[in-house]
Amino acid sequence: MERISVESSMIASIGHDSETSTLEIEFNNNQVWQYFDFSESDYSEFSNSDSIGKHFLQNIRGQYTENQVG
Predict the structure, then answer these.
(1) Which of 3, 19, 20 is nearest to 11 (CA)?
(2) Is 68 exposed, middle or buried (0-12, 13-18, 19+ CB in 10 A)?
(3) What pLDDT digit, counting tens, does each position of 20-53 carry?
(4) Residues 6+ apart with CB under 8 A from 4
(5) Is the overall model pTM greater than 0.90, yes or no?
(6) Is 49 exposed, middle or buried, given 0-12, 13-18 or 19+ CB atoms closer than 10 A?
(7) 10/37 Cα distance (integer angstroms)
(8) DSSP code at position 37
(9) In the Cβ-directed half-sphere of 5, how many Cα atoms lie within 13 Å?
(10) Where are the domains positioned within the chain?
(11) Are 36 and 22 in contact (CB under 8 A)?
């Protein structure tokens, strides 16, 4: 999945696959996680948020089925 770099003390890059509704996050510690059933509108809100890390902590972590892939 193609990811874009983001400015965050926690997150290095984010990407979204609209066909599978999967969010992929590469954290600054090089771990890559996928979050499932993540809509395109949720991704738009996430990618355009003022604080990517804060948005992740408040709205994504623990809210979606997840899997570490890297």
Answers:
(1) 3
(2) exposed
(3) 999 999 999 999 999 999 999 999 999 999 999 9
(4) 13, 14, 15, 47
(5) yes
(6) middle
(7) 22
(8) S
(9) 1
(10) 4-68
(11) yes
